[in-house]
Design brief:
156 residues, alpha/beta, Helix Hairpins, Chitinase A, domain 3, 9 strands, elongated
Amino acid sequence: MGKDFYLTKDGLRKLKKEYQSLKKFRFSKINGEIPKILHSEDVNPEYLSFREDLSLIENRIQEIENILKNVKIINPPPKSKQNVVDLGTKVTVEIDGEVDEFEIVGTLEANPILGKISNESPIGKALLGHQVGDEIIISSPIKVVYKIKKIKYLTS
């Protein structure tokens, strides 16, 4: 059994869309005009480029197929457990008087610029299982205290 990949419903929809696009692109590439292998006595650079492109497409298709076989959808927990930070939580924290908000997602959807942090990142991992009012100390080069102010689960 492979590694579990946690995705939101939206993340899964986007991945399936990418998968279908890649399969169509691969089909059009294979059924299009394939460059000749030899160009005079040397291997044709266009052919080498074609093979490399096809290889990259095939690798990504296989990667997505593996993810789809091992995907776990992030769903909100029962109401009684929605006071604890878990996957799918939008958590508001206070750091040195500044307020910030993170959404805890799986590694495939993590995008810190958009406020989406992985459950496997140091901050995400440290926040999991905590409640409003808890203070979490994260020590990377410097010690930072995160105080949980609010927990919200998204219904997607």
